[in-house]
Every structure is written in structure tokens, then in C-alpha cells.
Design a protein that fits this description.
With 781 residues, the chain is α+β, with helices and mostly antiparallel strands. The protein is built from 27 helices and 20 strands. This is Transglycosylase domain-containing protein.
Length: 781
């Protein structure tokens, strides 16, 4: 058959046959459509040349969807994910038996005709006219390749897939023109290679390499005669000839292929007969796809990487473009995950909290100064089998990245208040009366000239954890003992706005995406946060005041043909959140927490460490957030559903009367960080000399909560703690002890607590506040 000219135009012979070829063939191609042959020919004869000319001249081969490989920072594979399980291979890496078998059964005249097999079309047309339907098709391998291009381009859009496969004259003519173009540009061998890489072989396997692995657990180049015939036979109807589910039907189809190969002289009749006698010889491998395949418990980190690809503008300006990039795959994503840190985190979690426990834990480690996420794990395994305690909710991250609504961090927020105060000029020797019990100071200045006021009719009370905790205290001892009243007096002194501003500079935000509510109770950790947020914030202390946004991806390359193309990736942005002196002062304060305070069980013996415990009202959540100069980590323990209080509870096989931040999260953090840091440098902090407080009372290491017991429950009705407190809805109010104040009340839990019933007082100034926890306050860990 004459070829087209290299420039893409039709040869003289083809031009002469254009109308006849298009008119007759346009009808003839309808042999593959459920229309009578005569009617099809009549329909196609009208305007077919014009319609043919109007079809765009160039068909671009789509980028075939392939597996994406996610690696850790050492280059080890974490997981493979794909929209379609496909590994593209060259023709030389495909068994000659497969090549012969697919041609024999799908298009035996492949090497003798052009884009359209006129002889085959007429044969099918005659057969279908006799049958009055579609008894025989006429598409060549080239036409089938074009059809698969359309399907591939449609992706997972059901509407576009339907358009790509609809049995219409227009689609057939379009398919025909592109087939002619492809025949000229690619040649037979490349067409066959592309076809074998794009076609569907059933069982989630796209392309012959994936099919070979799926059915025989071997490479396509190693397939023998009978194996090749089996795969070639599947293509016509992957569901009907599925050897996994219908061995008998698949065997019949394989033998038909073998016989056809013998008839064409590709193999001898003896070879065909011998192969027919052999069993299918399946050695199946289950497809392994998605973050559920991740090693070292990194499924949630893998999903976090997926979320970044789907949401960050670096990977496409629109949601559709980012989704297309992810679905097409062929990516190699090198991440920041440190395999040593990840394994240590997961092992520590496994040792301390069982997946079947009533509560769960989540832990994250980041690198100070870079924002790199080194580890991310949790006790509930990644997956969709609820009966096996699996979940796909990433408890370490914010809601918009696949997490929940967050958890009140309790007293782990106090160092942010301390940083704001010191940055504003307060000395770490600052003393306050810090009584055991007090009402919230009122009024307190907030941002934008606004003021928070308590309800004078029922002032909100808060207490320290133990009655013997009575001031005066300086900042050092108040931090070590986690004295609630000290920190409420401190924030009332400096105002709410400096704390909100400092939190913003440290990347601290609510996990549900809402604005930080402004009320003095913010000092007690009443705003729901995620472990990643808290670990990244404390990393700013470790890096002497530099906050770096968390980052999970080091590099991304995309396979384009046989080459790897590097893609732009989002970078961490570092900025100064506080002075070095402020950060060093906070580190000095928090070093005292693990040495002499509520966090002693979290301390690291072999290196400098600092941190803070936290426990919320009613013990719905407990935390330990800490750091060394080279790693920062956060551990949360609690009920993801925000229903189970951690009193009278068994966690990891150990019974607890009451759970404190220093008891369960602290040891998890200690073991996690010890393993993550093993063999790594052990630098010291830059400490500040802070004179000891004059008070000789030594009640260190006691409960860090700040339980307000009976004092809190009744205050909520009319308090309307600032701004907003209870106004925010079910996620804001409802859980804590501290009744109406919203902050305390609702803090922690998102949406499962009763709606407050009290009214907002008339003198309530500034309806945006923190919402209820004022009274109840977060326990002081």
C-alpha cells in the first residue's frame, strides 16, 4: 500500500481514493457498529469528505498513566501508587511469542495492510449484513490503538470515557483519520509496542508488563508460548476470559489463539498441540497499590504527600491539572522521611498504645531550621477496614490535608505565651501572685483595639492542679510546674494580641482552618491543633527563633518517554519568629520541665532536651511536645471521636487512673526521639541564666493539668467567654468542664459536644473571642 509523504500529506493514490475510501470505508467501518451495512453506507456517503477534512490533523499520543514511586530521603521505596497499574516497556523487552500471538488473534494482516484493512472490512461487512447485526469487527491494531488513546486521555471521567467508546459514525471516522496518521508517523513496530503497553488485560493490569506480573509474576520478556497466548486471548474480553475467575473459559480462548498462530505459520501445529495440553500455569501476584502498601507505618505520610500533589499550586494551577498529574503517574517522589526516625516513631507508638485501644496516638518529628518532616505515624493503621481498627484520617495533620479537626494542646501552648511575653520585654524572672484559685482578670486587651471582658455577674474561675500550688511564682518554676494561674495572669498583663501574633509567626493555627479565638483562656491551650503544627512550632525554639514551614517533598521527576523530567516542588519558607535570646530563654525554661518538672519521664539522658506536657480538661487529650537542637517532635494521645475521657482506662496494656501529658505521651516521645537520634550529633542548647525563684516549695513533677474540678462547671452559663466562645458551634463549645466559657468547654473536640445553652451578656465586647475555655481552662500539663 502506498505510503503517505513524510510531510504528512496524502500521496496521489490516496488522494484519488479519498472520497471512495472515506465514503465506502466510513460506511464499512460501521461493520463494527450495530447498524445494517446498507444503511451505514448510505449515511456515510453524505458529506464524509468534508467531515474527514475538518478533523484535526495531529493526534498527540497521550502520556500513559503509570506507577508513581514514593521514596524516603535515602532513596528507599516507601510505596507505589497508581491510577492504572502499568509499566511501559520497549518492544525488545516483550516476548516474541506475545507479539506474534496478539497479531495473530487481533489483526492477522497487520503487516500487510495500512491503517485500515479494506479486505477485512469488506469481510466483516458481508458477515454482519448476513447476520443482521455485529457478528464480526474490522478494527485493525492501529485503530484499536487510537481508540485506547481516546480512552486514556479520558482518564477517570466517566462522561469522557463514554464519549471515547461510543459506537457512532463520527467516532469511527475520527478514529480512521488518526489511524492513517499514526501508520505514517510510527511504523508497524512502534504501533505494536504502543498497543501492547496501552491495552487492558484485566485484573487492574494495563499493558503487557503489568499483566505478565499479575498473572505469572514474571517480566513480559520471559513469557513462554502458552503464557503469551493466554494474555493475547484476554484482550478481546478481559472479564469473560479472566483466567483467575474462569480458568476453563480462559483455557478455551488460549487454545484458539494457539491454533490461529499455527494456521498463520507463527508456530508449528505440533507446538500448538503441545501447548494446548499444558495447564495455564498461573502464578498470580495481587496488585499492590496505594499508600496501604507503605512500609514502616508510613501510610499516613504517603497520603500526606498525595494531598500535597493534589493541592499545592506548584504541581498545577488548577485542581484538574494537579489531579491529571497524579493520575497519570510515572512520578518518582523523593521525600523528607527519615527511615530511622520513622521506624523509631512507629515502634514507640506500637510499644505504648495498641491499635485496638479506646484511644489513639499520633506523633510527628520535624527538623528545626529546614521544616523537613522526618517521621509521621499513629497507632490506628492506615486502611479502610474499620473492623481492623483502620482509618484513612491522618491524626497528625490539619483537616484540609486529610486530618481531623484537631485537639486542644492544653499547656503545650504556654511556651508560646512565654515567648510572646519575653519578646515583648518581660523578664523570665517576672513574678505573679499565682494563687491556687482565681477569676480571669478582666478586661484584657485583644487585637485591633478590641477588648475581652468576663461576665461580672458570674466571673469565670480557674484553679491550679493542686491546692499547694500557690504563688508567688516566677516564670521558670511556673513553667516547670505548669501553673495555670501564672499564665493567665501573664497573658492578661501583656494582652491577647501579642500571643496571637507570636502563634502566627510560629505557624500555629487551628486544625479546622478557623481563626484563632481571642480570649485569655488561649494561654491554657483551648484552640484545637494538630501534632504537625505543634512540632513545627517548637522547632522554632530549637532553631533559635527561626520558623520553617513544614515540607515533605525533596524532589519529583516525571517519566516522559525514556527520559526523566524534573518538576518544581514546594519549598519550606523560613522566617524569624522571635529573637535568638527569646528562643534560648524558652529553651532554658523547657529544659527545666524535663529535668525537674512535669515532663521528667520524657527526658533524654544522653543529650540536651526540652519540652512541655499538656492535658486538657476532662482528659480528652494529653500531649508532650519537645525538642533537641536537631529534632522536634509532638505526641498526642486521645480519642479521635472526642468522646472517651482518659480516666480509669487501659492504654497499651497498662491501667491508668488518670492520664497526664507526662505519663503516656511523654514516654512515647522519649522512646521515639531516642531511636530517631541514635548515632546523630548531640549539640547543646544556648541556655540563658535565669535565677531560681525564691519560693522553696518543691512540688515538682505533679499533675500538669490544671483541673478546675467543681469550679468550672457552672461558670459557663453567662460567661460567654470572649469573643465567640460558645458562639462557634458544636466544635467550639461543648466538652470541657468549664461550662459556658466556650473555650474550655469546647476546646478539644470538634463537634461532638452539646451546644451551650447560656446567653451572651450584654457587656460582651468583641464577638470573636476564644470561646469558652476560660473558666475551665485547659489542664495545665
Amino acid at each position: 500500500m502506498p505510503k503517505k509523504r513524510s510531510g504528512g500529506g496524502l500521496s496521489p493514490m490516496q488522494q484519488a481514493a479519498k472520497f471512495l475510501g472515506v465514503s465506502v470505508l466510513a460506511g464499512a467501518v460501521m461493520a463494527g457498529i450495530a447498524l445494517p451495512a446498507a444503511g451505514a453506507l448510505g449515511l456515510a456517503a453524505k458529506g464524509s469528505v468534508k467531515g474527514f477534512d475538518e478533523i484535526p490533523a495531529n493526534l498527540k499520543s497521550p502520556q500513559l498513566s503509570q506507577r508513581t514511586t514514593i521514596l524516603d530521603d535515602k532513596g528507599n521505596q516507601i510505596a507505589t501508587v497508581y491510577s492504572r497499574d502499568r509499566t511501559v516497556v520497549e518492544l525488545k523487552d516483550i516476548s516474541p511469542y506475545v507479539q506474534k500471538a496478539i497479531v495473530a488473534i487481533e489483526d492477522s494482516r497487520f503487516y500487510k495492510h495500512g491503517a485500515v484493512d479494506l479486505k477485512g472490512v469488506l469481510r466483516a461487512l458481508n458477515k454482519n449484513a448476513q447476520e443482521g447485526g455485529v457478528a464480526q469487527g474490522a478494527s485493525t491494531l492501529t485503530q484499536q490503538l487510537v481508540k485506547n488513546y481516546f480512552i486514556e486521555e479520558a482518564g477517570d471521567d466517566p462522561t469522557k470515557v463514554a464519549e471515547a467508546t461510543q459506537q457512532t459514525l463520527g467516532r469511527k471516522i475520527r478514529e480512521l483519520k488518526y489511524a492513517i496518521q499514526i501508520e505514517d508517523k510510527l511504523g508497524k513496530k512502534k504501533i505494536l509496542e504502543n498497543y501492547l503497553n496501552i491495552t487492558f488485560f484485566g485484573e487492574q493490569a494495563y499493558g503487557v508488563e503489568a499483566a505478565s506480573q499479575r498473572y505469572f509474576s514474571k517480566h513480559a520478556k520471559d513469557l513462554n508460548l502458552q503464557e503469551s497466548a493466554l494474555l493475547a486471548g484476554i484482550v478481546q474480553s478481559p472479564s469473560r476470559y479472566d483466567p483467575v475467575n474462569d480458568e476453563a473459559e480462559a483455557t478455551k480462548r488460549r487454545n484458539i489463539v494457539l491454533q490461529r498462530m499455527a494456521e498463520l505459520g507463527d508456530i508449528s501445529q505440533q507446538e500448538a498441540d503441545q501447548a494446548k495440553e499444558k495447564p495455564l500455569g498461573l502464578h498470580t501476584s495481587r496488585p499492590k497499590n496505594g499508600c496501604i502498601t507503605a512500609v514502616k507505618g508510613a501510610g499516613f505520610f504517603c497520603d500526606y504527600v498525595r494531598q500535597i500533589l493534589l493541592t499545592d499550586p506548584a504541581f498545577g494551577k488548577t485542581k484538574e491539572k494537579r489531579a491529571k498529574l497524579w493520575n497519570q503517574g510515572g512520578l518518582t517522589i523523593r521525600t523528607t522521611l527519615d527511615p530511622q526516625a520513622q521506624e523509631s516513631a512507629q515502634e514507640s507508638i506500637k510499644d505504648h498504645v495498641y491499635k485496638s485501644d479506646a484511644v489513639a496516638t499520633a506523633a510527628t518529628i520535624v527538623e528545626p531550621g529546614t521544616g523537613k518532616i522526618l517521621a509521621m505515624g499513629q497507632s490506628r493503621p492506615y486502611g479502610v477496614n474499620i473492623r481492623n481498627d483502620e482509618t484513612t484520617i491522618n491524626l497528625s495533620v490539619n483537616h484540609d490535608m486529610g486530618g481531623g479537626v484537631g485537639y486542644q494542646p492544653g499547656s503545650t501552648f504556654k511556651p508560646i505565651v512565654a515567648a510572646a511575653a519575653i519578646e515583648g520585654g518581660k523578664q523570665p524572672t517576672q513574678e505573679y501572685s499565682s494563687p491556687y484559685e482565681m477569676t480571669y482578670p478582666s478586661p484584657v486587651s485583644a487585637c485591633d483595639g478590641k477588648v475581652w471582658r468576663d461576665d461580672p455577674r458570674k466571673p469565670t474561675k480557674l484553679t491550679n492542679e493542686n491546692e499547694e500550688e500557690r504563688g508567688p511564682y516566677g516564670m521558670k518554676e511556673a513553667t516547670a510546674k505548669s501553673v495555670n494561674t501564672y499564665y493567665v495572669q501573664l497573658i492578661s498583663d501583656i494582652g491577647i494580641c501579642p500571643v496571637v501574633d507570636m502563634a502566627k509567626k510560629m505557624g500555629v493555627q487551628r486544625a479546622d482552618g478557623r481563626q484563632m479565638r481571642q480570649a485569655p483562656s488561649i494561654a491554657l491551650g483551648t484552640q484545637e491543633m494538630s501534632p504537625l503544627t505543634m512540632a513545627s512550632a517548637y522547632a522554632a525554639f530549637a532553631s533559635r527563633g527561626m520558623y520553617c514551614t513544614p515540607v515533605a517533598i525533596e524532589s519529583v521527576t516525571k517519566k516522559v518517554g525514556s527520559e526523566q523530567k524534573s518538576l518544581e516542588v514546594p519549598k519550606s519558607t523560613c522566617s524569624r519568629a522571635m529573637s535568638e535570646n527569646t528562643a534560648d530563654t524558652v529553651s532554658t525554661l523547657l529544659k527545666g520541665v524535663v529535668e525537674d518538672g512535669t515532663g521528667q519521664e520524657a527526658g533524654l539522658d544522653s543529650r540536651a532536651s526540652a519540652g512541655k506536657t499538656g492535658t486538657t480538661d476532662e482528659r480528652y487529650a494529653a500531649w508532650f511536645v519537645g525538642y533537641t537542637p536537631n529534632m522536634a517532635g509532638a505526641v498526642w494521645v486521645g480519642d479521635p471521636q472526642h468522646k472517651r475521657k482518659m480516666t480509669g482506662i487501659t492504654i497499651g496494656g497498662v491501667p491508668y487512673d488518670k492520664v497526664y501529658g507526662g505519663k503516656v505521651p511523654g514516654p512515647i516521645w522519649r522512646d521515639m526521639m531516642s531511636g530517631a537520634l541514635e548515632g546523630k550529633p548531640a549539640p547543646d542548647f544556648h541556655l540563658i541564666d535565669i535565677p531560681d525563684d525564691t519560693d522553696d516549695e518543691d512540688d515538682r513533677g505533679r499533675d500538669d493539668r490544671g483541673d478546675h474540678h467543681g469550679h468550672n462547671g457552672n461558670n459557663g452559663d453567662t460567661t460567654g467567654q470572649v469573643i465567640g466562645g460558645l458562639i462557634g458551634g458544636p466544635t467550639d463549645g461543648g466538652t470541657g468542664n468549664g461550662g459556658a466559657n466556650g473555650d474550655a468547654t469546647g476546646g478539644g473536640i470538634g463537634g461532638t459536644f452539646p451546644t451551650p445553652t447560656f446567653s451572651i451578656p450584654e457587656n460582651f465586647i468583641q464577638g470573636q473571642g476564644n470561646g469558652g475555655n476560660n473558666g475551665t481552662g485547659g489542664r495545665r500539663h
